[in-house]
Amino acid sequence: MIGDRLLLLLLLGASVWLARLWIIGYRAARAGTPSERPLPGATPASPRAVAVAAVGALCILAAETGGEHVLGLSAKQSTMTALFGLYSILGAPVIEEVIFRGYLVVDGRGRVMLWAGVVGVSLLFALLHPFLWEWHGTGLTVRFTAKAWFSTAAIFAGSLWFYTVRFFRLNPQRSLVPCLVAHAAKNLGVLAIKYVQGFVGGWW
């Protein structure tokens, strides 16, 4: 448990450092003097693109929540601490969007390869979330439950949407701003739902 807390604090620190580098590049791009090697997607986006991205992410969350209710999976979700909630809103969007929607992109090889890469990386992104598996000190545990498959599918759908809002027509500069806002909005929604349902417990 202490190791998990330290890891979250380290990840929060890493996200602050990464966000700082990204913001430097973003400000330079807005000023018309882009950095020589900026982080990916450090460009402006229109308010409309950001709004569409956030609304779409919340619609996916609403579908996920409704699906859990219909399938009787609502009571099987995990409990979240306040620290993890903070990381999920402020840290995870920065780290995951810069790495996945920023760097892990098949660019310059046509639309087919771009979207084939999006599907492949989104599958990897979903599988990296510990729903179908769990690591203990004694080893790896695999669990193919309905809840695990459903949550993994929801993460996959979310990733596809985050890639979509980076490359859709409303975002001609391929900014990561819509991705970051959409990811943070979805995770904030998850935290709010868990809190209402009684699945947020403890600070650490």
Explain what this protein looks like in three dimensions.
By secondary structure, this protein is mostly helical. It has helices at residues 2-30, 47-70, 82-103, 111-128, 146-167, 177-197, and strands spanning 133-136, 139-142. A two-stranded antiparallel sheet has the order 1-2. Strand 1 (133-136) and strand 2 (139-142) form a beta hairpin.
Layout of helices and strands, plus pairs?
Blueprint: H1 2-30, H2 47-70, H3 82-103, H4 111-128, E1 133-136, E2 139-142, H5 146-167, H6 177-197
Antiparallel strand pairs: 1-2
Helix pairs in contact: 1-3, 2-5, 2-6, 3-6, 4-5, 5-6
Concise structural overview:
With 204 residues, the chain is mainly alpha-helical. 67% of the residues lie in helices and 4% in strands. It has a two-stranded antiparallel sheet with strand order 1-2.
